[in-house]
Write a structure and sequence with these properties.
about 70 residues, single chain, mainly alpha
């Protein structure tokens, strides 16, 4: 539903910020549940992502595609 709000914004150049924020709350809830199912909390997920990006940057592979750059 969040993506739908953004699609309408791109088309109509109007965005209901509060409605979009509420939809992001749903996205956050699903993300937290998915992380928990994997045995992580969101702070661990953030750290893993920052570490991954820092590694890519230091190796000069921040651009491009693929999981294991």
């Amino acid at each position: 539903e969040y993506a739908g709000k953004i699609k309408k914004y791109m088309r109509d150049k109007e965005l209901d910020d509060l409605a979009a924020a509420k939809e992001l709350g749903d996205v956050l809830w699903y993300l937290a549940v998915a992380a928990s199912e994997l045995g992580y909390d969101l702070s661990e997920i953030v750290k893993l992502n920052v570490d991954k990006l820092n590694s890519r940057k230091s190796r000069g592979t921040i651009g491009g595609s693929g999981d294991n750059r």
